[in-house]
Write a structure and sequence with these properties.
The chain is of the alpha/beta class and 363 residues long. The strands form four sheets. An eight-stranded parallel beta barrel has the order 1-2-3-4-5-8-11-12, surrounded by four helices. It has a two-stranded antiparallel sheet with strand order 6-7. The protein has a two-stranded antiparallel ribbon with strand order 9-10. Helix 4 packs across helix 5. The protein is globular. The chain starts with a helix and ends in a 13-residue tail after the last strand. Belongs to the glycosyl hydrolase 17 family. It comes from Lactuca virosa. One of its GO terms (molecular function) is hydrolase activity, hydrolyzing O-glycosyl compounds.
Length: 363
């Protein structure tokens, strides 16, 4: 009888664990940028997502060919509003038209979020768009709600570590003084509407020449100790600094979705093919597990890798053109297994989606 009770207890415990993991696990998404002249067609790109069981995508504008290719797939989508379109959406009528043309007309596309602007910052070259972000967010939210899609599609904006004035230690995270006026009402809007903040997180740019093991999830132990919270990777430290900064402005319950994270394979400091592959592999293992961060433990982290392809026409440093996990011809640059789960003993098990050089129509 004792053995049977023990076996029953173990089975119940295992079932509870499986249900908990299934409910919390987040598949990894991949950003689909198209700043190149040698990239596959949108249909072939979507086929590549499907073949590799990549079930979440971020795009940066409402590209009709991409939306058409996504029809009827199970791929969840972050659709972007480019910065240069923000001003026009400060009018409700324009926002209504945008939602009708780019969302309602594609009823069989699984829209998840609308990213209203990308890395708009009072201190960078995008400062001209600061006053348009929140009005555009409000108007798009109104239009989505009026269309009966408010519970399905959340409106947000994509920010980045450049808005932080303090990031160390993470619990002291705070926005730049001159960014507070811009970001605080956005945070309050997100809190009121139960929407997440989208944040682009790049340990490569924050500390590429510093502690490389810390940036690559390879530190053997604690690197930063912060009021009882121990950090062994830079990704978690940046993410928790954003959480702390939000909390101080009324956003303690606003979830963060990591809307970009990646590492270049060429063209910059601290780069090699091997370091990029290491970063992507360890990032996937970390965010799809249920470890969470020291400030937000016990859950996976919704994350989008940047990017699907190397984009040969991206402006800026040479490294900007080498973030792809695929080459433009569709060949995988790395052997990456998507959607991993860490078990209770810390081991990693593969769920599905081994990246491999499958041939698809068009390649």
């Amino acid at each position: 009888m004792a053995k049977m009770l023990l076996l029953l207890w173990l089975l119940v415990d295992l079932l509870v664990f499986i249900i908990t993991v299934a409910q919390d696990a987040q598949p990894v998404g991949v950003c689909y940028g198209r700043v190149g002249d040698d990239l596959p067609s949108q249909q072939d790109a979507v086929n590549l997502y499907k073949i590799n069981n990549i079930t979440r995508m971020r795009i940066y504008d409402p590209d009709r060919a991409t939306l058409q290719a996504l029809k009827g797939t199970n791929i969840e989508l972050i659709i972007g509003v480019p910065n240069d379109a923000l001003q026009s959406l400060s009018q409700q009528s324009a926002a209504n038209t945008w939602v009708r043309n780019n969302i309602q007309n594609y009823s069989d596309v699984r829209f998840r979020y609308v990213a209203v602007g990308n890395e708009v910052d009072p201190n960078n070259a995008n400062s001209q768009y600061v006053s348009y972000v929140l009005p555009a967010m409000r108007n798009l939210h109104n239009a989505i709600t009026a269309a009966g899609l408010g519970n399905q599609i959340k409106v947000s904006t994509a920010t980045y570590a450049g808005l932080l004035g303090v990031s160390y230690p993470p619990s002291n995270g705070a926005f730049n003084d001159n960014a507070r006026e811009f970001i605080e009402p956005i945070i309050r809007f997100l809190a009121e509407n139960n929407s997440p903040m989208l944040v682009n997180i790049y340990p490569y740019f924050v500390d590429a020449n510093g502690n490389l093991l810390y940036a690559l999830f390879l530190s053997p132990g604690t690197v930063v100790s912060d009021n009882g919270r121990n950090y062994s990777n830079l990704f978690d430290a940046i993410l928790d600094a954003h959480y702390a900064a939000q909390a101080s402005l009324g956003g303690e319950n606003v979830e963060i979705v990591v809307s970009e994270s990646g590492w270049p394979s060429a063209g910059g400091d601290a780069w090699t093919f091997q370091t990029a592959e290491t970063y992507y592999k360890n990032l996937i293992a970390h965010v799809t597990g249920i470890t969470g961060t020291p400030a937000k433990p016990g859950r996976s982290i919704e994350t989008y890798l940047y990017s699907m392809f190397d984009e040969g026409m991206k402006p800026g440093a040479e490294s900007e053109r080498h973030f792809g996990i695929f080459s433009p011809d569709g060949r995988p640059k790395y052997q990456l297994s998507f959607n991993l789960i860490k078990s209770r003993n810390g081991k990693i098990s593969e769920r599905y989606g081994l990246l491999s050089a499958f041939s698809i129509q068009g390649f």
